[in-house]
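Quiz preparation item.
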């Protein structure tokens, strides 16, 4: 009888020790389990553009390279699906979360839950608006305002400071849509004869970009001098609509966009797209570096800005062989 009692006592105290271990701060959690295979939850927005699929592949392949168990969730463009995915990751006690937030607001409650569970959250490519920045570990992204400004300045120069522009916006409420519009408007504001005559969302995808451009052509006809698209996929859709209307994209209508995907370079070499501002989607290595640093308890800067370059028809041919996405 006495021996069973002692035995139960030993087992209970052992269980207690491990439980304590698990709940102490992330730093100590990683101590001694550096050989444990990491499990990371990745909540992706969807597959709306060539850019997005390149980002997904970059994160998936980097997880493979590092032997990380990646739990992938495709939110089909819906924030509620991302919030559900994050709650599942928290319940699964993943070691870290990578989040590409479809829109800027509405994340505080679930980010609080992740923080309470001591799970670092790495934001990739799109930022969030929160009252407390400690709700996420770090953001790795481009400067979307600067991208919009670069596109606006290039177009203002190309059009000699005057003309009618139609704008294809990204997903309403998404950081790149809000900021690329802001930067572009800042740049063209210096040219009073440059006007945005129509603006509509194409949700960053090619088909909706084409539809919106068809509507612009229907209402504005030959009055359109240029189209500014918040991403290449919408611009490539707009090019189709311009051609189907019997106009010459790149000549009759100047086309400027953002992302720098391979399709955009081919369109520039073909004379149909005039300029694209690169936005690098290959964020896998930086995201997992941030996770490793966070697990070691190292301090991370709140935002890492990825540098972007502008390309136009004069540089596209030479650059095309170097494109990785
Ligand atoms: O420009 C677009 C994608 O968030 C920066 O999302 C990203 C944007 C990118 O749909 O192609």
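Solution:
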């Amino acid at each position: 009888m006495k021996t069973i009692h002692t035995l139960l006592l030993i087992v209970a105290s052992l269980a207690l020790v491990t439980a304590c271990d698990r709940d102490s701060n992330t730093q100590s959690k990683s101590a001694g389990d550096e050989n444990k295979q990491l499990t990371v939850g990745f909540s992706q927005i969807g597959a709306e553009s060539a850019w997005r699929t390149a980002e997904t592949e970059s994160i998936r392949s980097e997880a493979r390279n590092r032997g990380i168990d990646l739990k992938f969730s495709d939110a089909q463009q819906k924030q509620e699906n991302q919030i559900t995915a994050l709650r599942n990751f928290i319940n699964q006690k993943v070691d870290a979360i990578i989040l590409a937030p479809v829109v800027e607001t509405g994340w505080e409650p679930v980010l609080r839950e992740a923080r309470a569970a001591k799970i670092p959250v790495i934001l990739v490519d799109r930022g969030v608006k929160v009252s407390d920045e400690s709700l996420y570990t770090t953001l790795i992204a481009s400067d979307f305002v600067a991208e919009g400004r670069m596109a606006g300045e290039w177009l203002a120069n190309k059009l000699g400071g005057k003309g009618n522009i139609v704008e294809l916006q990204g997903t309403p409420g998404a950081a790149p849509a809000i900021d690329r519009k802001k930067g572009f408007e800042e740049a063209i504001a210096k040219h009073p004869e440059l006007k945005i005559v129509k603006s509509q969302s194409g949700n960053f995808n090619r088909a909706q970009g084409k539809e919106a451009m068809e509507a612009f052509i229907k209402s504005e006809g030959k009055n359109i001098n240029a189209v500014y698209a918040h991403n290449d996929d919408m611009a490539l859709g707009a090019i189709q609509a311009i051609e189907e209307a019997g106009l010459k994209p790149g000549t009759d209508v100047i086309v400027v966009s953002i992302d720098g995907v391979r399709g955009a370079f081919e369109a520039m070499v073909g004379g149909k797209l005039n300029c694209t501002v690169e936005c690098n989607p290959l964020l896998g290595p930086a995201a997992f570096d941030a996770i490793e640093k966070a697990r070691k308890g190292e301090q991370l800067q709140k935002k890492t800005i990825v540098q972007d370059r502008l390309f136009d028809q004069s540089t596209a041919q030479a650059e095309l062989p170097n494109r990785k996405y």
